[in-house]
Amino acid sequence: MTVGEIVPDTDETPNDWQATGSPHYDEVNEDHSSPSDGSNIFAEELNGDDNDNEDFGFTTLTDIVANSITQVKVWTRGIRSGSVNPTVAVSWNGGASFSAPDVLILGNLVYGWASNTWAGLTYSKADLDQFQIRYTADVPDKENENTISCVYVEVTYTSSLTGYTNIFVGVIPANIGKISGVATANIAKVKGV
Fold first, then answer.
1. Of 22, 58, 134, 159, which one's alpha carbon is 20 to 30 angstroms from that of 153?
2. Share of residues in the chain with pLDDT > 70 (%)
3. Helices (H), 55-124
4. Tally of CB atoms within 10 A around 4
5. Closest CA to 25 of 13, 10, 35
6. How many CB atoms lie within 10 A of CB 132?
7. In angstroms, rounded to a whole number, what is the distance separating the alpha carbons of residues 110 and 116?
8. Which domains does the chain have, with CATH numbers?
9. Helix, strand, coil shares, percent, the chain, to 5
10. Is the model's pTM score more than 0.85?
């Protein structure tokens, strides 16, 4: 199985949360190895954010064998103040319907990563092309806030490329001829992979 990554690239409707900039997806689509918590989306009671939704469309992958997507793991970096966490749900049909919402456990007053996984799937590239996620905030009193600073999704699937099982720094392995002068066919492992 191959694990590829997709990132937000579209603001979908609704996008009710507040943001430090525009478009909203640009505030959460960044290098997840060193995210900037200063750019984010947020929901707070001061803005009347009860059950407000924030929907994102995503980039896609090109080398997916039909019906081979078996799992998606949504990674979210964020923080909350107060006792109420947001929820996250996924859609495979362009937002026409979403999965049951899953609670997103954010750190209280401390930025951190959280993941939510949907497994046992049988989706194809056409489904991934319509993939969206929805964050929902219900912040009941003025001390509460939900903030998200970075989002990406790991997609587990079977690749149509033979002999390769992972994406290396965002480049399909078949397109990498050499790494530091060594032909890739002669490299048994790259950082343990």
1. 22
2. 80
3. none
4. 22
5. 10
6. 20
7. 19
8. 2-160 (2.60.120), 165-193 (no CATH)
9. 10, 45, 45
10. no
